[in-house]
Design brief:
Distance between the termini: 24 Å
Strand order of the largest sheet: 4-6-9-8-10-14
Number of helices: 6
Shape: globular
Structural class: alpha+beta
Length: 238
Amino acid sequence: MNNIFYPSKNNKQNIHISILAKANNINAKDITLEYRKNTEDEFFKYINFDINKSIFMHQVHKDNIVKIDENNINLFGGRERVVEGADSLITNIKNIPLVVQTADCVPIILYCDESKSIAAIHSGWRGTVENITSKTIELMKNEYNANPLKMYAYIGPYIALKDYEVGDEVAIHFKNKTMINNKWHIDNGLEVKSQIIECGILESNVELSNLNTYDEVFYSYRRDGVQLGRMLTIGVIL
C-alpha cells in the first residue's frame, strides 16, 4: 500500500479527508497504468469508499467549477466517467468522494459545517492566478448559502517554495515569493491560503500542510518530469 496521510484539524465526524501518496519502494518513472489502478483500488477499499461512486476530474489548469447534484451525478463515477475540463467540484450530496489529482499542484478541500457542502479544488499556479479557490467559495455561497465563518479549509501537500523555481512571468503574479540564487521561488499553497482568508474564512479554520511533494514519498512533476503517478486528495461529506 502507498503512504496515506490525513489532516489533523478537521472534524472527522462530518467529513472524511485523506491523501494517497507514493510507496517508498517504487520510482515514479516505473509507475504503470496497471500499478496505479491497483493502488488506487486498494486505497478506496482501505478508506471504505466506492471508487466507482467517486468523482474524478480531467483537470485543465483553469478556473472551471462544476456542481455535482441529482441532475448530473449519474453521468460521473470512477476513472472512466470523469468531469471533463474542470478543476473544482462542489456538492452537498453525502458519501460521494470528490477527488483531486496532483503531482506538485495544490489540492484544496473546503467544507461548510452550516450548509453541509464541500468542494475539491486543483490549483496549479495558473489556477491560483485565476483565483479558482475564491471563485469556488463564492459559488458555494450562491448555491448552498455557505457561510465562510463556518467553513474549514484543508490545503494539502504541494511543492515547497524552496523547490519551486519560476520565471519572472509567473512570479509577478505572486505575493508569496522570494529570491534564491537569483531565481524567483513561489509558495503556491501560502498564496491560496491568503486568498481563502480574504474570502472570510477564519485563519484558525485553515490547515496548511507542511508536506512537500518534491520529497520522495510523493509524486512530483518538477522532480521527475512526465510520469503517470498522481497523488489523490479525497473529500467526502459523511
